[in-house]
Each structure stands twice: as C-alpha cells, then as structure tokens.
Design a protein that fits this description.
alpha+beta, 4 helices, elongated
Length: 91
C-alpha cells in the first residue's frame, strides 16, 4: 500500500470517528401535537392528501406512516416510518 492511500484511510477514519461523536439536535413531537406542527409548517394539507413521497423508498407519505421531518440544506425532507429509511438517514 502506498503512503497516499494509507494517509487517505487514516483521514477517513478520523473523520468518521469525529462525526460519530458530534451532537445533533433532535426534536420530538407527541402524536397529539403532530397536526398543529404540520399546520405551523404549512404541510398539513399536503401530508393528509398524500402529496409527499419518501425519498428513500418512494412510498406515499400519509399521517399514519410519517416518520421524520428534517431540514436538509433548506429543504424540508419527509421520510416514512420504515426502519430501512431511518437507518439510511443516519449514515
């Protein structure tokens, strides 16, 4: 293995270790408060009408299968409850 490949692997390992220990703010919402949150975000009608699709599995998002709402680079991303989509979000 050449020295450049070794240095790259060390840098990548350090990056992954640092990223793992960085804190992320996570906000939770009770089921009773979800409708008011969706209204506040202007997403209530769209979610109830099934206007969103999960970016990971392309399933239509409804109130019953809404998993996460996140802000990624200024865009609101809604994912379903599937554990596969949640695990992809954290990688």
């Amino acid at each position: 293995m050449n020295i450049q490949a070794f240095i790259f692997k060390i840098k990548r390992l350090l990056y992954l270790i640092i990223r793992r220990f960085q804190s992320q703010e996570v906000l939770a919402v009770y089921d009773n408060d979800l409708d008011s949150l969706l209204k506040k975000l202007g997403l209530f009608d769209e979610v109830n009408n099934g206007a969103f699709q999960c970016p990971e599995c392309c399933i239509k998002i409804t109130r019953e299968n809404l998993g996460t709402i996140s802000n990624e680079n200024g865009a609101i991303i809604i994912r379903c409850l599937s554990t596969n989509c949640k695990s992809k979000e954290q990688t």
